[in-house]
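As described in the Methods, two query proteins were run sequentially through the folding procedure within a single session, without resetting any intermediate state between them. The first query and its resulting structure tokens are shown here.
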Amino acid sequence: MSLPTLADLERMARQAGHILYDGYEKEHQVNHKGPIDLVTEIDHLSEDFLIGEVQRLFPGHHILSEESGALDGVGEHLWLIDPLDGTVNYAHGVPVFCVSIAYAYCKEVRFAAVCDPMRDELFTAERGKGSWVNGRPLRVGRTQELQKSLLVTGFPYDSWAMPRNNFDYFTKLAKLTQGVRRLGSAALDLCYVGAGRFDGYWEMAVRPWDVAAAGLVAEEAGAKVTNVDGIADYLSPPQSVLGANPVLHEKILIELR
């Protein structure tokens, strides 16, 4: 069975990014998966392309994608795909969204690619080799004091119904830091931590395709990435995520506890 390379993920992410770019600010067919959980025809176009490429080049590999769910394949080879992370932004013409692709072998993410077509940025990572944006090496920020940090977070589509409400943590950390942003794309949030643009990111409820690729990007840039309880596995349910440099990670974790 053939195995992918980072170059395969880079090409797929770039091509899917072109699909998003070409459809941007056009009239969309918007459907609702929930009261505020949207999906457009561009989500499906991007996903169809990515699934088609994986099945064409790596037949038999298992695929987990946001819109199609789990597609059967060989268990040790797993692709985690978000064809359009930031659909609500996209549907409203807000230029903050991306394509996210991760390849995992035996439950360990090996390669990652996150493409932001509006900024023409491609974040990539290979386990043990590093992470990059457009080929430039990434390094997590060095800020170690909460008061000097800029954080980012997100809210699930059913945040008002969750027993652990992130609005309280948002308010708490906003008062302890230089600010907390909310961009609307989990993958870009975590990639920006790896790039040193944000000092930390947390979210109380995510899905594996949201953070699998960006998690590796951040980790390979020197961030510590766990769930919000400090557990290393942030891809297994119940899912949440916290990423920051190791010193700041511990300080944010204390506040989340």
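Immediately afterward, the second query was submitted; its sequence and tokens are:
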Amino acid sequence: MQHAQRGFGSIADVFKSDGILLWQAGLPYAQYLARKYAPIRVTTAPYLGGIGNFQNDPLLSQQCFATSEPLAATRAGLAVKTFLVAESGYNPYTTVLVTSRERLRQHPAEVQRMVSAVRAGWAAYLEDPSPTNAAMAQLNKAMDLQTFQDSAQAQVELIRPPGTDKLGAMSTARWQALVDQLTELKVIRGPLDPQRLFVDL
């Protein structure tokens, strides 16, 4: 996320600019971006959460969730522009259901029921997020109901990307790209068969 008046056209512009980028440098996505856009010109510093620093510095950019900090910044009266890390080519599955191969083998119907229930829940949320947003607003007083509604709208294409047949679908090609990237970054070692990393139920 950066101030719109900076006129950046892509995430690459952030790394070639003056100013400061707040991020968690040790995370794989940061390592990937630093390598892809090297040598970087922007000064980097740790991201500690929120938008307080961002509000007070027009030359500051920061990591964010596209469904959170940009909404808070807009509500604070700031004009912002956000680039998805996925636009750079690094696009992992960031929220997944995990089970063991043994459990999948021994209890396939149970695993299928779980997947079906989660998929149905997300489908219902996409259809009408209002009841869930109201419940979350009661639990999280730091976000008002309007922000929850704005967040629901902002994440529609992240939950159901264009061209996907079903919620939660995965592909071998996307897993292979991630394996290649993490191997190059030395986050993982040794060969991994992407087809053994997921089951698309």
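The two ends are 35 Å apart (CA to CA). We note this only descriptively and draw no conclusion about the first query from it.
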